[in-house]
User: Fold these one by one.
Assistant:
Number 1:
Amino acid sequence: DQQVKQNSPSLSVQEGRISILNCDYTNSMFDYFLWYKKYPAEGPTFLISISSIKDKNEDGRFTVFLNKSAKHLSLHIVPSQPGDSAVYFCAASFQGAQKLVFGQGTRLTINP
Amino acid sequence: DTEVTQTPKHLVMGMTNKKSLKCEQHMGHRAMYWYKQKAKKPPELMFVYSYEKLSINESVPSRFSPECPNSSLLNLHLHALQPEDSALYLCASSQTPGGSYNEQFFGPGTRLTVL
């Protein structure tokens, strides 16, 4: 049972445009969501997070939106840069849990 | 210091060898984690240490043996591994073991190859 789903395995975006990565979840207990970026052969890097009491969180070029009724979150990157090319993982957790539940990842490619 | 370090970066071992992976953090975090990651897959949780005590073992085979000597260090002892254990092994830490408002910070990983 995959509780966190990233349905797009890959996404290609032109440099300077907006990249939108999507994530859906099924467990209503999740109350904290995170996005990680991963380059090949490196550990994931924490990007941005959002708690369920908010519907938006912004940090520079990165904005995460949360739609609790739809159990959906998205990561917006604007403007997209070549260095953003990586695999992006969505993860979720809830109070008292000691682990993150990861999605399968989306490979983002930024084209010049 | 906001870094999780892991050594070695690469490790090649035979199925009869014994080796250890090391992880260190100096952020004062009280939870530490071992993950295994195969290509094109998300990280897969193996163990969680909470205040230096093993709190979660995700049914990992006994050929993997974790150890937390102190609050800054985490080891993973390897013995009699199989070729299918070849993967990127990631260490992570977080301020506390709780789930919410508790980002996990990952090290660069150890690329393990079992021959």
Number 2:
Amino acid sequence: QSILTQPPSVSAAPGQKVTISCSGSTSNIGNNHVSWFQQLPGTAPKLLIYENSERPSGIPDRFSGSKSGTSATLGISGLQTGDEADYYCGTWDSSLSAGVFGTGTKVTVL
Amino acid sequence: EVQLVQSGAEVKKPGESLKISCKDSGNRFTRSWIGWVRQMPGKGLEWMGIIYPGDSDTRYSPSFQGQVTISADKSISAAYLQWNSLKVSDTAMYYCATISGPYPGDPFNLWGQGTLVTVSS
């Protein structure tokens, strides 16, 4: 099972903002960069955020990331129906010497 | 456009062996880590392991160490995920993905389309 904990689901109306938390420990989030991935239904994951808060080319600034201590947060503002997806955090775990993903959060647009 | 193209879906019986592939159409294959991610039906993403084709340095998640083998053939820019004896619990979608930076801890930035492996008697 994953050692990065996310809420199973979050929801909001179109145009609103949601935040997704990712809780870890000093061996992972506390000492390594965090990434966020979006997985639309039936598709492969896509990188949304890297190095805690950086967006790859083509990712709108409605998506934002932050990190504090052993937790990270993904924010999605101006929520759209096309944002309905599963979202995963990810980082390196220095104790495991391996990457780890969060438990995943399903975003629903009401 | 750089792509990762994975081999097609597989249906196998328990105890059989299997090797699935991932071909990189870009020109950075020997200078990028490439890895595998498992997604069991209705479940989340699991980091399995990565390989650096330039020198075959391979890292496994403890959960998958000894259960699978990751390899690469840099002459054809292909990475592989192999099982010697499949179990029903290996039924899952498997994604390959390349890492964006020079370190194994950097994120996966380019993903393949996935290979569905079904193991059933």
